[in-house]
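hey so i finally got around to running both of the ones u sent me last week. sorry it took forever, my laptop kept dying halfway thru and i had to restart like 3 times lol. anyway pasting them below in the order u listed, first the sequence line then the structure token line for each. didnt double check formatting much so if smth looks off just lmk and ill redo it

first one:
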Amino acid sequence: MASNYHDFHEFVKLMVRQDIIKTQRRRESMESHSPERRALLEYVEQFAAILTASGMQRMSARVFTYILVDDDVTYTAAEIAEGLGISLAAVSGAVRELISAGLLIKGRRASTRADVYRLNDEDIWGSIMLDRAGFLDRYQETAVAGIESLPAGPGRDRLVQTAAFMEFTKTEMTQMRERWNERRSELSAAFEARRRDREASH
């Protein structure tokens, strides 16, 4: 028992040390960049934290945000790894998940024949939103199973409401995505105009 506790304690200390080393290396890497580049990488971490809190894997969130906010159109795995200061193995897992989710597209750079990745610019945020549709389906199916097996009563009524809400949400999300695709250029331009007006008034 004491041996198991000791082994676990040593494992925890090792993980903490590795985390400290990674943090230090990331800080040193950040300090080697220009102020503009540091600002971009700091923003990547902020935005990625929000995506992670919403359910995206942390490394996938960092890779997605980096490609979203950096100015290049396509990136090799090596370029992503260098830009974020992460391993090629970490990039490989992240891009695989992002491609599966419809957020990245894999292509080939003609000059080098290297695999490259770019955003699925056609509908990034629609893809992110509707990526949750599978969860809604599972919630609805589970609620329906309860409706069919439980006797009439307040508990069953709440499950009916749950299933109806999931169905309503899926329909609304699909329609909202269609409206967004029709008007995204117009709405984006209007948002930027309002933002500049507010900035000018301060």
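and the second one:
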Amino acid sequence: MAMGGRAVFINVGFDPTASLDIVSAMTLSSGDLLVAVYPKSGDEVSRLRSEHARSQINNHVSMLRALGRNIEYRELELDLKDIVKSIDVFLDFLKGVKREGRTVYFELTGGVRTITVIMVLISVWFPNFVDELTFIVEVTRERVSLPVISPLEISKGRVKDILKIMSSCSSVRRKDLCNELRVSESSVSRAISFLKRRKIVDEKLRVVSLNEKFRALSSIFKHFGDCFQIREK
């Protein structure tokens, strides 16, 4: 049965202070699920530090509950000695969360580098399981959110060509897209309809613009088509 709400996966390492800082900076609301992803420890010192970090997070969630926020907390242990099994365990856990009807966020700040790599790989290969990547830029200390979209989806038909054009302008008319690409209006219309269903673009009075959430990917849209040209050569 679908529960809805957000599921925020955080990468927990062996630094209790850093882990708590990351969680404290989040805005968790009632109905949210917080998942601490952590590595199986190979020595006693690392195990104790990891337990302390997770205990700090659990205490923070308990404090939020005392303030009236109904937040669920779960933990996911990965044995990084076996990367293949770790990915398998992560995906099984993630599928269960998605069956609850939750929107999934991967917080990539801090933690163990190998888990960060696994989280990024999963978001690329299984974009329907992950909705957004979030992280803090070390230089500015600002939190950045990036939407997740499958490269396979935007490589279809004229979709990648339209996104390339839109990467360098705030909005464009359908007629101008047809002229620029030298294709029929029906071809452009099919691509735009697909992009609107995926909420990548918005349209008003036949003027199309990138959805604000996807503007952060403009540079990727700009260069995405080049990988096909290089491969063909």
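quick thing i noticed on the 2nd:
The longest strand covers residues 33-39.
anyway thats it, ttyl
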